[in-house]
Design goal:
Layout: H1 4-19, E1 25-29, E2 35-40, E3 44-50, H2 56-71, E4 79-80, E5 89-91, E6 94-100, E7 105-106, H3 114-131, H4 142-145, H5 149-165, H6 170-193, E8 201-204, E9 213-215, E10 221-223, E11 230-233, H7 234-246, H8 257-268, H9 275-291, H10 296-302, H11 305-334
Antiparallel strand pairs: 1-2, 2-3, 3-6, 4-6, 5-6, 7-9, 8-11, 9-10
Helix pairs in contact: 3-7, 3-8, 5-6, 6-9, 6-11, 7-9, 9-11
């Protein structure tokens, strides 16, 4: 774990050395799992920090996507090259890139109204339309069809064993409950994945939702943070973005079927999905939730509330989808 004060000092020195920026202030953004900073110099900038050399591929991919989408008329940030002409810089063993700062209204913790929600669905469809057939990944189906159940079980059981020897913590009971739920449902995922043949894959944002949309003073909508971009099932990104943007996992009555239909319809006006895509939407999302990292280890090591909140949030979504996936699938196909 890095020393924040020391890192900020080294970051300040590096921004001057490699970008010519005389930094007045560095402000860490705490809501993100990736370390991000706002840089105050003659102008404002945005810095994202990565942990290891493998992430250079992500930086290069993000830069390529941003340039491509900008050329297609999308409002996105751009990565600023350093004095050596590179899109990333190494600082104190970490890798970072510098972006222009977009001054705008973020929907991160605010409710998005219906009109803006449907516009965001349309924007996602437009993005998929321009990215379709531009990028591919020969291994794109591996994650969705070749789950290693035993490996998943071993990892989850190792966390449970670790919890047994740690000092008692009420929050560990939340983690234990979530893990035991995952262990119960894991065997079903293998059968679920057999249904994923014939779905539509597309290069996409990977974390599209209201929290990665910014609206500037002129009402322009910017899409930010493409660090999770990759080739995924299009239907997965659609339903996931709806859930995150509307907080539809909060309770049994918070999922608005009619609004979800409108959201999907707005998306389909820009990019077509086949019948199987629509049918499998909730199962793709449930599959991804139950095979993703719930941040258990991060909470155990740091006791940071953002990790615990993420664990609770993921668990709520998986419980909701386990009960309601069939109903959502049937509704979207009959509407």
């Amino acid at each position: 774990m890095k020393n924040e004060d020391l890192f900020k000092f080294e970051l300040k020195q590096s921004l001057f050395k490699y970008y010519g920026l005389k930094v007045n202030k560095i402000e860490k953004i705490n809501h993100s799992f990736t370390d991000c900073y706002i840089i105050y110099a003659s102008d404002k900038y945005f810095v994202k920090v990565f942990n290891n050399e493998q992430d250079i591929y992500k930086i290069k991919q993000e830069n390529e996507l941003l340039n491509f989408l900008k050329d297609k008329g999308f409002n996105v940030p751009y990565i600023i090259k350093n004095k050596e002409g590179n899109i990333y810089t190494k600082v104190a063993g970490y890798y970072l890139f510098l972006e222009n700062f977009i001054q705008g209204y973020a929907y991160t913790d605010e409710k998005i109204n219906e009109d803006e929600l449907l516009k965001s669905a349309k924007l996602l469809g437009k993005m998929h339309q321009v990215l379709d057939n531009q990028y591919d990944d020969l291994n794109k189906e591996d994650y969705w069809k070749n789950i290693n159940i035993e490996k998943e079980k071993d990892y989850l059981n190792s966390i449970l064993n670790e919890l047994k020897v740690l000092p008692k913590d009420t929050n560990y009971e939340i983690i234990e409950k979530a893990i035991k739920h995952k262990l119960r449902i894991l065997p079903k995922l293998k059968e679920m994945s057999k249904r994923f043949d014939g779905i539509t894959y597309v290069m996409t944002h990977g974390d599209y939702s209201k929290r990665n949309l910014l609206k500037d003073a002129k009402e322009n909508i910017y899409i930010v943070d493409f660090s999770d971009a990759g080739v995924y099932p299009a239907a997965f990104e659609v339903i996931r973005s709806y859930f995150i943007s509307t907080d539809s996992c909060k309770n049994e009555n918070s999922f608005d079927y009619n609004l979800f239909f409108k959201y999907v319809k707005s998306y389909l006006e820009e990019f077509p999905l086949n019948k199987k895509d629509l049918e499998l939407m909730p199962y793709l999302f449930l599959y991804q939730i139950l095979t993703s990292n719930y941040r258990y280890q991060e909470y155990i090591e740091t006791k940071d509330e953002k990790y615990l909140n993420f664990i609770k949030w993921k668990e709520n979504m998986s419980l909701f989808l386990e009960v309601n996936a069939d109903k959502i699938s049937e509704f979207i196909n009959l509407s």
